[in-house]
Amino acid sequence: MNQGIWAFGPPSLLMAVMVAGIHNPLVVSLCLSVLAGLGTYKAIPLVSDVFIAHGRSGKDLLKEGRPVIPESMGAIAGVVYFIVMFVFIPVPFIGWFRDSEYALADFPHNKFAQFLGGLLSLMSMLFLGFADDVLDIRWRVKIWLPLIASMPLLMVYCVTYGGTDVVVPIPLRSLFGQKMLHLGIFYYAFMAALAIFSTNAINILAGVNGVEAGQSLVIALSIAANDFLQLHRNPARAEAHLTSLYFVLPFIGVTLGFLKHNWYPARAFGGDTLCYFAGMIFAVVGILGNFSKTVLLFMVPQIFNFIYSCPQLFHFVECPRHRMPSYNSSTKLLEPTWCSLSKTGKLGRLMIRILRTFRLVHIRRDPKTGEAVQANNLTLMNLLLVKFGPMSEPRLATFVMIVQALCSCLAFLIRYRLVKFVYNEVEDNRN
Amino acid sequence: MNQGIWAFGPPSLLMAVMVAGIHNPLVVSLCLSVLAGLGTYKAIPLVSDVFIAHGRSGKDLLKEGRPVIPESMGAIAGVVYFIVMFVFIPVPFIGWFRDSEYALADFPHNKFAQFLGGLLSLMSMLFLGFADDVLDIRWRVKIWLPLIASMPLLMVYCVTYGGTDVVVPIPLRSLFGQKMLHLGIFYYAFMAALAIFSTNAINILAGVNGVEAGQSLVIALSIAANDFLQLHRNPARAEAHLTSLYFVLPFIGVTLGFLKHNWYPARAFGGDTLCYFAGMIFAVVGILGNFSKTVLLFMVPQIFNFIYSCPQLFHFVECPRHRMPSYNSSTKLLEPTWCSLSKTGKLGRLMIRILRTFRLVHIRRDPKTGEAVQANNLTLMNLLLVKFGPMSEPRLATFVMIVQALCSCLAFLIRYRLVKFVYNEVEDNRN
Predict the structure, then answer these.
(1) Alpha-carbon distance B166 to B384, whole Å?
(2) What is its EC number (chains A, B) (predicted)?
(3) Spans of chain B, pLDDT less than 50
């Protein structure tokens, strides 16, 4: 293990020398993010045996022989992320930390509090995610965990922005009779809901090698791209988008480092730790950067997957313990899995019928009576397998990432082209 | 589990009504601390089976039949602590959160950042402690974990106080030729060392039912007593001591709630999670309140135990895997344990001889040759057993708490009576 850590000496030194002359925090953040990626990539194989030896492992159900894979590796990605962030925090404030340049009285405590509040929420979620992996917390309890974890974040929002007014879209203005709508406490409820949604949404769209980290990577890259775009388009809000970049770049680093081991055939699983952590990053960035609506636009596949899953999640339709695709050992391909419709009530049948109208579900019928007996499990991955036929595991993971990327393109189109039909130019620049 | 949670409704409501009219954050903090204590007390039995079912358990080595006890319960105390703290944070700032009273521009972001930084360090340590319980991290790695966790705290210190000058004690002034000494980076090194020391020190003085939580409770009570004293003596520094109280009161609450289950015969173990968390509380309070030297005074038993253990910890004298007292099933009392001196080198023998001069070690000799063959394991608890004879487990835990309390009394004497021989009155008021 020590050898692995010492291997970091030369690149770190080289980078330190390179960065020493550069006083741009964004460049430092980029360099640290590269180091974070390398660190995660190197650390995971070093600790895999320790994780397995202490029972932090799971079986890969979609492989022959169901090999044992170390689980909860999101904890390693998280720890590397935090080390990098703790090292980075002083950088944007370097002028104040060097005694002479600025007076400490002018120190931007509000900006500093943003970092601390964001990291506190993230650390809370990392801890709760790891605790969930270890203790298998019940659904009805754990769905509320992000609410606790997001509280520092909401407080930081309250004292830095505090605004709870939203611009009413032009077509709806006659309805509300005003341009701005004061949401008050409901705006906080919306942000808390965003945190609860985004942490759980990554967790629901999971189960295939590389798919949790893959979707998170695409979302994080989209957020970073949007930040860079806004830095040029909207200098007045540069500060907020820089903060967002400082949070999201190291995340891209550790996710890439992790994905290298998590991709098919996986040698590491992220566990709930990774899903919760990734989800919280998106909530933190959206809330601190004050562009939570845009972040939601990047999560359309997760929103779709969640709404699509609702008939099963709320037990209108039978919901088996696992809804992942199944592995066919003769074809070596993944196939969709099915739920029985025999015990489905009236409301469940209505939902299935609506989904059928939009061609979003595949039904298997009894060949004799013609009665619907099975429907594919209502997840995005099963739907892809139903639509495009059985495929290999890495292909399915790639497919999900492509869907995610296409949705991001659509989000950019909505955000930068179609928005003018909904808001004026000036309002558009707000977030 | 739900029933247990619902049981909180009536007392919470009653308290909310009581507190609603009181605008003193300290009173709110006290009320919340009582709730935190009740919460921890109620929650632990509810989750014990879950912890055991997921392998978070250990054998109680000092009991007949070595019963299986749920471990890492410090996590529950920690989670309750954080929920209460997250709820509490807005309270001292309530004037700003109610739109009308104060302008948001005047918001004391620096004070807010203190809370966030302190909680971030605590949460980091809670996570790392739990990870250590689950993964059994190696000593040489984990001894540095508090360094990572304390970084946000040091940054907060830097931007809120920033002072690294210490007052030179009067007798030493001629030596340094000045009244103030600028320590610079060394002051930060001292604070980081305090964090590393205090987190590990609680962990070393452990192994008997109730002793980890017991010593933490006495230290926390001493800190709270000192805060209350200073609030009256030194109004200029009231703010710092109030912050300290806000952090330490809920900790006293959860520790009492936990101790009720951890006291002999224990039905819950705290694990490293509790020890690290408790240690970090003391570091946070000392650093944020800017009275780290006083906190160290309250930890004299831990300092003694650490220095006393050094010959074994650094392998000058043989160090067995466990150094706790052993249970004698015929007398039902705890007895000291021994280490062999047969392989002890020259330096180790010298250390034992020095300890013997101060009557701090008991030696067993070969009856024929008269040669020293065994010494008691060098821990405070073994020393107490050697000096006062075998005793029952709860009696030993009480003994440690009494030693801790006596040392606190001594600390108050030094801090408030003897200090005038070392510092002037005015300097004394500084911290």
Answers:
(1) 36
(2) 2.7.8.15
(3) 1, 428-431
